[in-house]
Amino acid sequence: MPQRYALGAPGWDDERVQSEFSDSLKLQVWHSEKHTLRNIDMFFFLVLSEDHYYIVCFDMRKREALVINNSDEREGVDIRQQYGSTPFRLQTVFADYLYTKGLKTKSLMVRRACMARLEMSWRYTDNNNDCGVYVMWHMETYMGQSVNAWKCNLEKGNVFQMNVLRIKYCGSILASGLNEHAASVERSTNATFAAISKKKQPSVNDILSGDV
Predict the structure, then answer these.
(1) Which of 24, 48, 181, 199 has an alpha carbon within 20 to 30 A of 7's alpha carbon?
(2) InterPro entries recorded for this chain (predicted)?
């Protein structure tokens, strides 16, 4: 299994973006369990643009830069027209950051990677509310495989699946050790999942396999 790392991307409106990016990454790495980026195979950046979340993933093994987005809006246009400069600016500042940390090989891989979109069958335009849920599930399940081999188990427009995943992630957040009412929340969440699992909906058990 690849070593993966999730990071938040800063806003791009400030002229001091390079400095802020470096400070942000330094802080995130410091607070993580790994404390280094040297052995990471895949970097996932959470990007917020116009109230919509999506992922930019840099795969060191395949030397790829990928946009992973649940929306297929403006699908026929060039990637620069669809996403503007954001993914490419992220690519540049991340490559610069890696270089300053002495990770010159990784820096070169990121800088030379061709930015592309992952074209998943479950993407669709008419959903502006669930992008955060999609982002979390995409980061949890994507290991760098081809789209056809990616066992994401999502179906286009399946509201039931989104509700199940929303409960899953809300439950995980509320059951965190930082919440003094975590035990009560966990019992309630498990009871909800037990009720949901009795419904005959395809692929839900696959989606939640091992995580409930």
Answers:
(1) 181
(2) Papain-like_cys_pep_sf
Radius of gyration of the chain (CA): 18
CA 135 → CA 30, 48, 132, 196, distances in Å?
Answer: 23, 11, 5, 22
- pLDDT tens by residue, 99-122: 988 999 999 999 999 999 999 999
Looking at the DSSP bridge assignments, the partners of residue 48 are 53
- Model confidence over 151-165: pLDDT tens digits? 888 989 888 889 889
Question: Token pair of 71, please?
Answer: 């929306």
Separation in Å, CA 124 to CA 8, 30, 67, 147: 24, 37, 15, 16
Beta-carbon contacts of residue 25 (< 8 Å; ≥ 6 apart): 7, 97
Say if CB 111 and CB 92 are below 8 A apart: yes
Which residues have C-beta within 8 Å of that of residue 3, sequence separation ≥ 6? Answer: 39, 40, 41, 42
